[in-house]
Structures
1.
Amino acid sequence: MELKSVYEPHEIEKKLYNLWLEKDYFKVNVNKDKKPFTIVIPPPNVTGSLHMGHALDNTIQDMIIRFRRMQGYNTLWIPGTDHAGIATQNKVEKEIAEEGLTRKDLGREEFLKRVWSWKEKYGRNIVYQLQRLGISCDWSRERFTMDEVCSKAVKTAFKTLFDKGLIYRGKYIINWCPRCLTALSDLEVLHEETEGNLYYINYPFLEGDGGIIVATTRPETMLGDTAVAVHPEDEKYRSFAGKTLILPILNRKIPLIGDEYVDPSFGTGAVKITPAHDPNDFIVGHRHNLEQIVVINEKGIMTEHAGPYKGLSGEECRKKIIEDLKEGGFLLKVEPYIHGVGKCYRCNTSIEPHISEQWFCKMKDLAVPAIEAVKKGHTKFFPEKYKDLYLYWMENIKDWCISRQLWWGHRIPVWYCDDCNNYFSSIEQPSACEKCNGPSIHQETDVLDTWFSSGLWPLSTMGWPEDTEDIKYFYPTSVLVTARDIIYLWVARMMMMGLEFKSDVPFHHVFIHATILNTEGKRMSKSLGTGIDPLDLMDKYGTDATRFGLTYMTAQGQDVKFTEERLEMSRNFANKIWNATRFTLMNLENFTPGTISIDDLTLELPDKWIISRYAGLVTKMTYSYANYEFSDGARDFYEFFWNEFCDWYLEISKLSLYSSDEKRKFTVQYVLWYILTGSIKLLHPVMPFITEELWSYLPQSNGSIMFAEWPSINENMIDVKAEDKMNILSGIVKSVRALRGDLSIAPSKEIQIYIEAPEEQDRTLIEEHCSYISKLGKINDLTIVATFEEKPKMAFSHCFQTIVIYMPVKDLIDINQEKTKLRKEIEKLEQDLVKINNKLTNEDFLEKAPGDIINKEKVRKEELTFKINSIKDRLGIFSNM
């Protein structure tokens, strides 16, 4: 079959992915004769749609899997989705709200039926979108965090930790979302820098004149104050020790206490203590046995304890209490103040610290082996800097609030006995209390934090708690690919769970990839309209070009601003690969490599050079894939294939392909086939579709490329001398092309060239390969000398190392006309330069213009100055002719 003249990515991509699925190419079983290589997918939310983070993350995982598969590993990539407790419940609640209903109207059982129905209808959208990306997961093993296998793992893990005393119930201050009406862990709170105010309020002494001034950003919470605290060593407050204050507005008596928690340098050095509405105050309150007065309820509404402000929202209360404080003479001043405000990671509502009875998991004991595993190198981070972040958090870890006041999720497997007030955990549904055997029991209504089930992902996806063959063979996994945002939320918790339940790390490597930012250098957000849909990019450029562009632009450990220019470059590159393959195939008619080795051929300099360069590429790309330096690999491949294989060797090969020397023709055909075949293999992990298609046309390419053996090299292929010699020849050709470019001489126009090469070895090399230089430089008259007694007249020159290349221009251009053109060009550029100089000497411009605009003008001035001087140099040469 002849390869089509035009590359049509969408037609190829759909055809090939369906073929891969039909033939079960991604399906993997235990095979003890092969070494396993395993990845578990970071499960996207069932509510999700493909975004740039998904596209990059899954492209990287697919590259790794395809690379290791070709290296001969038994590669397993397990896919799945996360039930996303808060996000999914919000989706369904919005849906039933359109019917005028709430979840409480439906009841728990009926509401959960609606959620499951929604999940079945919409929950696979993200999976189809991932498949569009070309990822090679074993879809027969797809898991869902609430399927039967994962649910059993969650219940088993909970009960095990509960029985060990690592899970407990307690009443503490936690992060509360007034909209979602659920607790959140510290890691689920997003902190945003917000412009607010610092309010200075006077708390009068009960006896005598004066009082203590406190500064607060939330005056509405003062209604729940039960003390004012100062640092015990703060000299300015030492004489007031033991005094009693009056809480403004409510006139409640509160003590002045000393506590080392207070920072004397902040505000006035005195802080209001509100144990029910601030986590630090909660701790201080416990130390001093202070009352906990709840003045803001779970919906963010002021309670009866707020006195005259009962029933107001927090924002309404703040406005009213500020007015009342002013009127009473208690508000002394207000200052603008920027501070961090906690927001719910799902709905962006401001978080309220809230005292509530919740379930917690003790983390310090679980963290110890997870810390040691990283310190000892059992799990390694790439880039290594993320190891320190992981260790810092783990070494300062706090107990985890694992309960959520939702209906969608893993219901906590705890039952309460109405007869003996006992509570216990069970994996199966119990019929009676395990203590008194009474039948009057009811299950906890809260569900577990979504991250509890996600923390078990490497285990539950392989069938744990059963001791399955998969776990024995595929666990621990080889590498986890993820974003830095969830090192604490997910990576750390998987480490703790894996070591707790399997006494081994869940993965040997953790690769933290870059974050793709928008053109302004900010995080992408679909909700804010700053996101880019990768599906649109795949529609426009093709999947392979999208994958290659993302890979090319994202260097390890560096965030990157997205630009479509890279994708345009990648699309052009895909066309280049297609056309280069098409050219090669057209010249491989009746060619069969047979059993001949490349070592059996009689090679000329260009052959030795391209083989040596290819061998270097194999080494570099193998290292890049193995060490997660994918951007380097993409750049190396691009440079080799476009600038060396296509621009140089393909052009040189035409001299032999179109000659009558059959032996030489076969050698060049073999080298073309060998390099192209190996190059397509190297490219396959990042551009799977085009490489699979082209592979099917190449001689001796059996089966799918994804099972082809990864390229290997031997030391004989590396030829430094050939590379050095070819560097000289290519340097000469580049000089010829530069001379053409300086005078805008068409590439098709043949020219005369003189080469002055003082070194005999250089002259010999040039003379032996002058046909290549003439072919690539479009030269019809080439003269080579050791030295000129008299330099060629009316010629432009260019130097390369010790070699000088001369190009006579008498018959190529009208010199007088060229001089006139250059003078006009200088005149125009100098006018532009005057305008810029006027700007840069204008004090008004320098004061008012933004810094980046001023810098652009300075750069433009340098560019114009350089260009003017270059043209003047060229004009000087013409003037001397």
2.
Amino acid sequence: MTSPFFNAHHSPIGAFATLTLGMKGSLGGLGLELAGPANEGIYVGLEEGDGSCYRTLPFYGNTQISAVDFDVEGHTDMHYEGALHPYSDAEISREFGAGVDEWTAGDLVFRVYSPPRSAPDPESIGAKDALCPSVLVELTVDNRDCERERKAFFGYSGSDRTVGMRLLDEPGLVGVGQGTSIAIATADKNTYAGLAWQPEAVLTPRLKENLQFMLGSIGVIVGTVAAGELRTFRFAVGFFREGTATTGIKTRYLYRRWYDRIEDVLHHALSSAEATIADSKRFDSQIRSRLSPERAFMVAHAIRSYYGSTQLLEREDGRPLWVVHEGEYRMMNTFDLTVDQAFFELAMNPWTVRNVLDLFVERYSYSDGARFPGCSEVYGGGIAFTHDMGVANGFAPAGRSSYEQAGLTGCFSFMSSEELLNWVLTAGLYVSHTGDIGWAKKQLPVLLNCLTSMEHRDDPDPDRRNGVMALDGARCAGGAEITTYDSLDTSLGQARNNLYLAVKGWATYLILEQVLRQLGESAAADRAHAQADRAAATVIASSDEDGLLPAVIGEGVDARIIPAIEALVYPSVVGLPNEYPELVRVLTRHLDAVLKPGICLFDDGAWKLSSTSNNSWLSKIYLCQYVAEQLLGKPADARADIAHVGWLLDSANTYFAWSDQMLAGKAVGSRYYPRGVTSILWLADGRNPIAQIRDLFASQSA
């Protein structure tokens, strides 16, 4: 890494909460249900050996409130001379993993533990531990070479304008918080806490009875390290939301089953600290032992951002409801993210995948007709699924999303066809990985409806079908459907006859055939196989003499795209044999032809998803890299990995932690984003990768 100063999430599972940390200044903080960092100061520091000042990590700025806001003529003597001095950049180092983020400066080591654990079924043993909405912090001071005692401290400035800061009044805890939702605490009896406008007022209070200054916007916990001592202070950072959590569907956070107050969260986090630390270290060792430093960094960064977007809720009838928010946009269970995150979730907690699929059927599916472009006649269609389930803790009405609008041809149009494919693919991945045939039987009417809907979107006349989607959903009302690549040009943005969706449709038909044969539906399975044959033939026939495939088939759009190969991952992951060697050969030849500077490579070697757009998405690059290496036999592209890390660590991008959409290397959208966990596939080879990853991380908790 070129610089240690980049924001990263440190998040519990399912709490939609984060301690975001890493940028200089008040650009991180403790966030609950936010679209970006909390923008509050984090105070971590140690008294200098000679007692002259306090050296700090640089995660804070000027306080927003001070005595002058009250004492307008300046008569107060509450002001303290600034005694906090940040370590220089050269004095600071950082070791960054998915579970442990460690900062070292002088005699100070600051660690944050947030282990990537499975989200267990809420009824299982251990759910209370795994779903505790907290992260763990350690502050280690090496005072063995000093002849005087020194103070060390950890604190933050609260940013919630609706409630004030407070000292915790709780037996067994020393801590500070804001309202009932966010707090930090230690069980160390040899510490004290205080509130102030300046940390110095807590570190060197004039009178200790002034420490509970409730107008103070900063809360700090202070401990003392004796001369000649090596000492570690341990803190819990807790998050808590009581009461109703969402609208549209009434829910509460599922952790409310076990925790009634944030103090309960803090007690439990501190009492289970040893397991948290061990799990964090083991997870990181597994990643580092299998990946290059660049890939280990990207996987760790992506996993952290994923967990920061997760939310585990409970309905009024007690049923759990799993949500992954879409980063800075906070759309809920965006389906074109669900299908990409499924590899990670199936390895870690398959029940969440089933949970999301069930809710899409129950509430976020609808029946829609289909239209040829420029034609007003509506033909038979079938089942479709919404783009998402709502936004920012508000569930959308049944059959509607927060995003899709009629009459459009670009961003915010409908993604009906792609989401239809996504339901089938995600369901197929789930059934293949879990062997849950009972669930598949219950969903048989949906699966058959999906097959019919896909066929109708190809062509109403069976004799004219070529296996590729050519009709837009009637809900578009004269507009045109788009793909998950909504902000790209026609090369990847238009759904109709798109090469990316054509290959994805081929893969979907194969997955559908596999499930239908398992369920004894031979006739329907034969229909699916016939459509897969047609789709493969259409793609193969579109290849030109140079081996290049058009981004949009038959419409004169000759842009070139890397994601033509993306959907090869699905048949491979579910273990289907390669019955289409010619299609694979054509796609391999196409990839070889486009992975060149000026076509689908940037000058620094980074991958350019479309030859006609500088907007390239890291999550999709990661997925295509896996396909290229494990399925098409290409060597790992180390130069590209270095370039992609460079994107994430560019000073223009580091505020929003892991980001997806990069316009020539600059984060322009999809920031603070969860989808980068497609990179988890790097940990496996081409043989049953989800099971490999599952077994890898199952062993880390043994």
3.
Amino acid sequence: MNLHEIVSQLILNTRGDVPGGWWAFSPASSVGVFLPEITLSATIVLILLVRVFSWGRWIDVFWPVLAGSILALFLASVHAPAVAQRMEFFTGLLVYDSFSIYMRSLLLLAVVLVVVLTKLTGILNHEEAPDIYTLVLGATLGMCLMISANHLLMVFLAVEMASVPSYALVAIMKQRARASEAALKYAVYGAATSGVMLYGISLVAGLVNSAHLPTIARVLAERLPDLPGDEAMILTLAALMIMVGVAFKLAAVPFHFWCPDAFEGATAEVNAFLSVASKTAALGLLIRVAIGIGVVVPPGLTAGQITQTNGPPSLHEHRSAGLSPAIGLAETRGRISPSLDSGLAETGRSADMAPLQGLLGKLVALLAMLTCTLGNLAAYGQSNIKRLLAYSTIAHAGYMMMAIPPMMALAGQHPDLAERAVAGLGVYLAVYLFMNLGAFSIVAFLRNVMHSEQIDDYAGLFRHCPGVVICLSLMLFSLLGIPPLAGFVGKFAVFASLVEGYKATGQGYLLLLFLVGGANTALSLFYYLRVVKVMTLDPDASTRGLVPLPLVSLPGFFIVALTLPTVILFFAWEFLNQYALRAAQQLLG
């Protein structure tokens, strides 16, 4: 390809083949599918510009932030372009499919709710609100990139874009030494894990001569049967190092140490954002990396060339020439056997990737078992409600990671069951959004009226604000996972995928994972029940006065709005399940 063809292809990829000026673009172009992220970026620029002018001090930036977040949510869900199969955009750095639509919608819905929560709690004053909202939207932008990452360098950049603003958000309470200490620990630990992950990325890129995830899978599919022992050891080490960075974002054991301290030092509003949005993005990234490295998928579509009529060479012509228009301007498939590439393009799963899939599945299974077990056991002795919910968040990360091993075990021979495992995770994330964000919201509202976050100070709350106590109890029991609450649906969907995976493949570690998950669910009953018992049965705390937090108020309406889905989704689970199944149907091609 000469320079003219490269530039023409780049323009076509970015804006599509549409008439009009430079501002015109096709819905299926890179710009068209990137509109939610562009909206977030424009909102950040807007709220920063407001501070430049003297009249900006009279503007409450909450409203433009809320408007920008809602618009991004609308563009990511309702107005999202529909494509028949996965589509790579920005020359293969990112990927767009039904899974991206679903996960970005959950992420941006969580951001909208967190922004509303900050307004209701009044945690931000007029001077610092633009800075904090800039950090929130900046972290959200990085999380959106994590969900769509299709290239190992984009994986690293997205993780850093999501992490760096999060470090500052933990230290939002400048007058609290504990918050500054927690932010410092978070930053130091994050820098260390990022370095380890980057080294793992360099090992993979050096081994296969590419950083594009689908290309990596194709190269490994060709070379894996005859891979020398030393290269196999390097590949295993690289997978472990990359998992370090993803496990850090998930707060998975043994990379969870930052989470309890950060959650105790940060405000409940920040905790709600980190526990829901960060988990959604990290799990989306984990699925992208696991499938990108361990499963060979069909090439898919290329942004801007779906409705092409003339101009640069078409997608079909690129493939016929042995070039991939979606893996980057400098990367070609010349490194891969043409006969193998042709077969993989037709079936997407013809190569035997079982050893690599088994390695990734068992690695994630081990982390999941350790994470949910330690999270539940460590929650027992906590006296601070935010610290208890931090360990609960760690435990739930373990439960949600349990959807990955059956997906990897089933991807080769039973792709339909593998998609159902991903759909189970999608259901879990949807219900987790409401019940966990609801729990932290109630903690924030109670902090404002009680000036305490100690569990002992919750004693006798039922006699002061029974409606709030009932809502918090429903959230906690839903986190436990008992019917008739939505948390049961989420856990059941993930556990069902483990049983299906065991029946279809006979791999015993899936059954062990199911048993560990069930045992941990029983273990978690006691610390959730302890909080409910303190609020309802214990006498009033002597150090606390009246707690005026009625449900007939704006905070009360917000609490009810988050509690209702926790109950309703149990009965509307089939709708949610079908939505999640549609989200997973393009992941494996």
4.
Amino acid sequence: MRKISKEELSEILNTHKIWLESDYNLGSRADLSGADLSGADLAYGDLSKADLSEANLEGANLEGANLEGANLSEANLYGADLSGANLLGADLYRANLLGADLSGADLSKADLSGANLEGAKGVTLFQYEQHLAVAFDSNKYIKIGCQTYRTRNWVKNFEKIGKDGDYSTSQLKMYGQFINTINEDLLGE
């Protein structure tokens, strides 16, 4: 695992920003593969709201990092350690999270549309028709489509939430089963 200094990280982020803004003609794509960025908000300055779209973060250690609101769309996070990371409102559209560790990560309000979550640890996935359902943070939270609530709130209110969202009867049934399964697991039943 390679250590990245605050100055080196700043330079990588700046050249990546230039690369994105110049339509890939100037600067260079951020390559933070195998980098140790654990607790990045504390050690390297706040990474929240950073634009790391299309960055290579394969195998990076982002344990406990603050990536709130960060743009990680189409980023390569294959095998990355994002355990305990703050990904609140992060854009993970079409991100490669294959085999990533998301244990304890906050995925509330994160855009996971098109993300590859195959083999990701710390999440339970379910999809019926167009809505992706993700249970995360040790099954304490469930995100269905763009709605995120504590599991216990889903159990009590999924029918109302679904009806307000124009879910069909079959969608309510299928997502209700998923919610109840996650709740049973959470309660250790």
